[in-house]
Each structure stands twice: as structure tokens, then as C-alpha cells.
Amino acid sequence: MWTGERQSTKMRIKYLEAALSQDIQYFDTDGRTSEVVFTINTDTVMVQDAISEKLGNFIHYMATFVSGFVVGFTAVWQLALVTLAVVPLIAVIGGIHTTALGKISGKSQEALSQAGHTVEQTVAQIRVVLSYVGESRALQAYSSALKVAQKLGYKSGFAKRMGLGRRHRMLRVRPSAGNPFHRRDLGAAYLHQRVGR
């Protein structure tokens, strides 16, 4: 956690230094202030999450996965072998799930950036907006950008539910091969391998 915080702080400082050392022409064409601020915040938070939380979770889940299969093979090796055959299908489903969520997340970030830019422009030019009675137009532009982000949030939730449902369905395929086993053995093997998913 501290490592992720340190790295993201260093990245924020370096990014801000690089943005401030640009010529003024950069901000006229390529970089709006809202984009620079939004990019600093979102990108460094993603890096911090990857270093601190996701790396720790990866190590935890891999250790649990391996230990679950070790215990599963010692308890009921036939059922563990059937489960091992399902692992590639679960990995493919996880890859599709991650790709879909990444695309939706990118579109959502873009919509939120657009909404932030609208607010920043409105606040920066509040006198002009008020003199031309443009409050309702600015509010409508902001609301439409947020509605896009909201719809993408719904899609993201649906994609998460579908991914988890498919993974759990693949985990349920395995007990159908366990008919000759005693119910207690099936329960023990399921519990050990469920922990090791």
C-alpha cells in the first residue's frame, strides 16, 4: 500500500512538471486544463491500485488456487482432475470478462472527462454564461454527459454479473461427474477447490 502511494505521488509530480514545462501552444491545441488534471488523477489512481491492491490480490488468489488444488488432489483426486479440465474455460471467460470491462471503463472515463470539462468551462466563464443566459444549456450538456456515464455503469454491472454467472456455471459442471463418490467427499472436494478457484 505504501509502495503504491509513493509511486503514484512520484508520478503525479513528474506528470505535472512535464505538463508545466510545455509551451503555451500545447494548451491551446492539445491539452485542456481539465484533461491534464483529470488524467493526473485517474491514471495515478489506476497505477496505485495496480501496485498496492491488485498485486496483493493476485498473490493471494494464486496461493489460494494452488493450495486448493493440492488439498483437492489429496482428498478426491478424480474430482480434482475433472475440475482441472474446467480451469482453461474459466480462464477464457475471465479474459473475455476483463476485456469487456476495460472497454466499458475507458468509455466511462471519457464521458466523465467530458462532463468535467463542461463544468470547468462553465465555471471559468461564468460571467459570459450568465450574460447570455446559458445556464440551462450548460446544465443540459453536463447532464447528457453524466447520462452516458450512467448507462455505461449499467453495462459494466451487467458485464460483471454475466462474467461471475458464467464462472459459477462452469464450477457447477464439475459435480455432475462425481456420481460414484460419497456425498461427503464431493462436499469436501468442492469446498477445497471452491476456495482455490
TrEMBL record:
PROSITE patterns found in the cross-reference section: ABC_TM1F
Residues in ABC transmembrane type-1 domain copies: 1-166
Membrane-crossing segments per the record: 58-77, 83-102
GO cellular component labels: plasma membrane
A molecular function GO annotation: ATP binding
Keyword Membrane: yes
Membrane topology: Multi-pass membrane protein
Keywords noted in UniProt: Membrane, Transmembrane, Transmembrane helix
Cross-referenced SUPFAM superfamilies: ABC transporter transmembrane region
Location of the protein in the cell: Membrane
Protein's UniProt name: ABC transmembrane type-1 domain-containing protein
